Amino acid sequence: MFRFLAIFSLVLLGLFLAELTAPVQRLVVVPWTGFLASASAFLLRLVDANVLSHGNVLQDMRSGSGIAIEAGCNGVEACIMLAAALMAYPAGLRSRMAGLLAGSVAIQLLNLLRIISLYYLVQWSAPAFEFAHLYLWQALIMLDVLVVWLVWLRWVTRRQYGRSAPPEALAAPA
Questions:
Q1: pLDDT at 160
Q2: Which residues of 66-88 are buried (b: 16+ CB within 10 A; e: fewer)?
Q3: Which residues cross the membrane (predicted)?
Q4: Torsions phi, psi for 58 (to 5 deg)
Q5: Domain total in the chain
Q6: What is the reported pLDDT for 165?
Q7: What is the pTM assigned to this prediction?
Q8: Which of 23, 51, 155, 171 is the most exposed place for a label (fewest CB within 10 A)?
Q9: How far apart are CA 85 and CA 153, in angstroms?
Q10: pLDDT band at 1 (very low <50, low <70, confident <90, very high)
Q11: C-alpha 17: how far from its chain's center?
């Protein structure tokens, strides 16, 4: 357990520090956030032609209301947490990369749902938006990270031990 926590903490710290650097912000975070806004606008325009995206902003062209997708709301931090958990568990590199890819897709799909729901909530009720943004969706995204990691953990242990994995193999890592 100590080994897992130590590696998890070090990888988490290293990735969070790397995310804060200007090159990573410029080359990864800002473009990804803009892509999320564009993807959200594309999905929203399937049902509402009045949605506009520019940069990291989603806006209703009629009312002018909208949301800005900022750091912490783009799913990057959730993917970093998943990456740290995957790297800390003793598994093969291919299994870790498969988990990171599939898990990041799952996290980002839920994040798109989050962004779209918040876009509509801000137009309906500011207090509901604040609650959903600050509390509900933060918890759900972190729960998603945990569920993805637990599903990956079960998949990895079944691959290592076969269908009849001993219960201790499915427990928390030593």
A1: 76
A2: bbebeeebbbbbbbbbbbbbbbb
A3: 67-88, 100-122, 134-153
A4: -110, 130
A5: 1
A6: 55
A7: 0.86
A8: 23
A9: 10
A10: confident
A11: 17
